[in-house]
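User: Sequence recovery, please. Input:
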């Protein structure tokens, strides 16, 4: 039948499923459609019912029966109805009704049912309400929040803030000079539209015009000015912004190509290069990124050993390769950390063992002489290991490097 819609939950047919699925299956229209994979635009009423309702609405609209005269009454009825979320008018009216109700309070000194003192419990609840409402009991803060003048006297905020802006003072500087709170200065600056720095600095008494002019003439950067004046970076930037002065970036004028190549050759870390050039880490990283050249990072604390600078790594690594030394042996002999030896080997494509083999002797072995002697005597790897007092792994590694081949054990006769 075309004038009925079948419920997919129970199989029964109705002219409209809206009230049925809500009352019987506890589903609303959206949940019902999602559950059965139906689009949200799918109708839940029969075609003839939908057509009849549409015709009725069109006829009432053409006759002028559909008006909005009922809306004021409906709005008032909805406003006064008991809803979960109430508007401010409802809250104010209900608060007035609740305040007028008589409340029975325990007499002073009485105990509550849980054994707590009634007076202290009431004080605790009032303090909790005050904190939740964020009401401060401090009169100076309340004065600043209200936007009135401080209790210490009348302050001409317009002239004081203009003077502070011209001098590059921060909010903390103005508060300390006038003897008022930081909140009062902030509120006055917001009210008058004056922008002040927020950092608390020791910049009071600095002739910023002369200092910035000298910095421009000398080509100093913001970092140079910070180091020379002993102030924070924010103070210098605020002074530059108020006067429309722009200082050059730190690191400008450095020959980064030569510096980066020199650092890579000498095995310097990024911390070494930063300390030597006196630049920020962000400046170094930007120079590396633009040139595609990267200096090794300071990954661990022991990598801070920078005594490796000045070592002729080509000679030392060639000697280590000839003597079959490990990276740890080279580090102990040169008095540097193993990371410096590792990066020197990596840059020069030299392969050394990471650590010494167990049982290695403290003095280097003349492997060419020993292997020539073993080859004439027909010794095995085990015999060479016992004669020299080293383990078999070290003998095998030295033999592989020099192209010697020995039997592991003597063949049985």
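Assistant: Recovered sequence (413 residues):
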């Amino acid at each position: 039948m075309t004038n009925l819609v079948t419920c997919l939950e129970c199989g029964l047919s109705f002219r409209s499923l809206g009230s049925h699925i809500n009352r019987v299956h506890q589903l609303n229209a959206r949940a019902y459609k999602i559950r059965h994979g139906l689009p949200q635009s799918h109708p839940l009423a029969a075609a003839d019912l939908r057509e009849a309702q549409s015709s009725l609405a069109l006829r009432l609209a053409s006759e002028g029966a559909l008006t909005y005269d009922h809306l004021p009454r409906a709005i008032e009825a909805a406003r006064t109805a008991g809803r979960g979320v109430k508007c401010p008018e409802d809250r104010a009216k209900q608060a007035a009704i609740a305040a007028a109700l008589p409340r029975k309070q325990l007499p002073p000194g009485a105990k509550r049912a849980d054994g707590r003192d009634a007076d202290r419990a009431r004080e605790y609840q009032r303090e909790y309400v005050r904190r939740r409402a964020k009401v401060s009991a401090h009169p100076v803060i309340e004065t600043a929040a209200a936007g009135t003048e401080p209790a210490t006297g009348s302050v001409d905020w317009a002239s004081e803030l203009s003077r502070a802006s011209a001098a590059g003072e921060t909010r903390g500087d103005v508060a300390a000079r006038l003897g008022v709170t930081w909140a009062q200065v902030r509120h006055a600056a917001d009210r008058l539209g004056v922008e002040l720095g927020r950092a608390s600095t020791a910049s009071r008494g600095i002739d910023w015009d002369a200092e910035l002019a000298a910095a421009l003439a000398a080509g100093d950067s913001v970092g140079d000015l910070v180091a020379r004046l002993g102030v924070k970076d924010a103070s210098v930037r605020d002074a530059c912004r108020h006067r429309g002065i722009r200082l050059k970036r730190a690191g400008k004028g450095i020959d980064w190509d030569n510096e980066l190549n020199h650092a890579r050759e000498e095995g310097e870390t990024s911390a070494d290069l930063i300390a030597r050039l006196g630049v920020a880490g962000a400046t170094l990283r930007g120079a590396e990124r633009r040139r595609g050249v990267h200096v090794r990072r300071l990954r661990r604390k022991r990598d801070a050993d920078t005594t490796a600078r000045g070592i002729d790594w080509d000679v030392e690594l060639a000697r280590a390769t000839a003597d079959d030394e490990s990276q740890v042996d080279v580090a102990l002999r040169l008095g540097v950390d193993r990371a410096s030896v590792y990066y020197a080997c990596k840059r020069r494509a030299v392969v050394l063992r990471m650590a010494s083999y167990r049982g290695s002797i403290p003095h280097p072995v003349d492997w060419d002489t020993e292997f020539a002697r073993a080859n004439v005597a027909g010794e095995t790897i085990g015999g060479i290991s016992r004669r020299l007092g080293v383990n078999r792994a070290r003998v095998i590694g030295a033999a592989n490097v020099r192209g010697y081949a020995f039997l592991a054990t003597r063949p049985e006769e």
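The beta strands are 5-6, 13-14.
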